[in-house]
Write a structure and sequence with these properties.
Length: 126
């Protein structure tokens, strides 16, 4: 789903639910060597997130845990998640938005290609 349409779906059909506390999470460390520079290290945390929807569906999704969300779980604070009422397995953290620039550039390129295709097609008929 493109960023624009995903953001629109969440604004129309998004619901919020409190997640259950996580029991464990997995941490992955990826190191990429740079030429002559210090290595680039990326740490990713993931966990199975469980929540109950407004209509009492039990949902489990595997999610990446941003640092602030992981800290909330570690403090046993309440952690909310946003889900689509039309597809509850589609989730995102509260305040998370998809970047729409990629979608914008894709549609802009497609519009330019379509325009020039139509322009060339009309010249061939003349």
């Amino acid at each position: 789903m493109s960023g624009f349409f995903e953001n629109r779906s969440f604004s129309k059909h998004g619901k919020v639910a409190e997640t259950e506390q996580i029991r464990k999470y997995e941490q992955s460390v990826h190191t990429r060597k740079s030429r002559g520079h210090s290595p680039d290290v990326t740490v990713t945390n993931e966990a199975m997130i469980n929540f109950t929807t407004a209509d009492n569906q039990k949902i489990s999704v595997n999610k990446k845990l941003p640092k602030d969300i992981l800290e909330k779980y570690q403090k046993h604070d309440q952690v909310d998640i946003e889900y689509l009422s039309t597809a509850p397995e589609t989730t995102r953290w509260i305040g998370e938005k998809r970047d729409v620039r990629g979608s914008f550039y894709f549609w802009l390129v497609m519009a330019v290609i379509t325009y020039f295709s139509m322009l060339m097609g009309s010249k061939k008929r003349d």
